[in-house]
Description:
By secondary structure, this protein is an alpha+beta fold. 23% of the residues lie in helices and 30% in strands. A hairpin with an 8-residue loop joins strand 13 and strand 14 (305-312). The two termini are 23 Å apart. 46% of the residues are buried.
Amino acid sequence: MLLSLSNAPRDYAWGSTTLLAELEGRAPADGPEAEVWFGDHPGDPADVAGDGTLDAVTGGTLPYLLKLLAAASPLSIQVHPTIEQARDGWAREAHLPLDDPQRNYRDDNHKPELIVALSERFESLSGLRPVPRTLELLARLGGSEGVAALRTRLEATGDVLRDTIAWVLSGDAQAEVDDVIAAVRDAAPGEQGEWGDTLRAVGGIADTYPGDPGVVVALLMNHLVLRRGEGVFLRAGLLHAYVSGLGVEIMAASDNVLRGGLTPKRIDVPELLSILDTTPGEVPVLRPSSDGAVTEYPVEVPDFSLRRVTLDGEPVHVALAGPTMVLATGGHVSVSGADAETREVRVGTAAFATADEGALTLTGVGEAFVAAPGGSSTPRS
């Protein structure tokens, strides 16, 4: 079965009025357009051309959720649980209604995710920076009381990143938080060498969320700038926040999010800290290959795989071993299935194939992303 999918953009406040519109070649939107979901998640299943939604076809069994994401301002700092943590949290909260605002766990699944940039610049905070490097950054912020207090916390012994984040988010450190934010705003990014871009980004976050302790948490995180076609994989336990840009995102089918700042939503600090992996280090950028029609973004999870296909007029064949989506992100893309029926896939929409199709053929001149369960589809030119 080969279906055409679309969906209405979700209007989260951090969304852009222009990024999705420019991708699809239409006028800017009147309000924010943040995410377009292509999946069978009950929160917003994709629309099937002709009739109904995708969950009626799949029974809600897709292991992944594919999205277009357009951020004009920062998303919340967040972390997702492992499967074991999600199952434990789901069991502990079994007595709470699903819509209870005190709930942390909406299901019993993990939520690893991969983002690939579609804009020429996509900014992200991904993972916790090694402490010695953060101390180098703090040296650019002067010696005010708040900065000194933050430095002292980071120079202590033990799990200093967990302890520092707990202190920043405790509600007892607001004076120090405000002082650090003032120091960030006073720093001149152009005079800070290698830290200029990071300070500019954190200063912009402070402008969007004045006084939010998450601004100080952001100072502890790796600031990444992805170029078009580059991606980053975010495993369970890894603190992250998208800052700006347009991307294709794929994740395990889950809605489990623990937040750590930059949001008006509830922050459960003890639960956040219980699932947070504070192992510091750089998060590797997945860069596209310069050879061939297909770029792979390898991830070590069974829930999903994602590949970018660049079409130059020659057909690209996709062998299927699971339910597969083809999301068009540029040019003219068509997909045909086993019965040779050809469907045009407009930019910003997707084609969905059930596994019984056996194979797909992509044609045209443009760009598409192929999503499937992990390791289950192999595009080849």
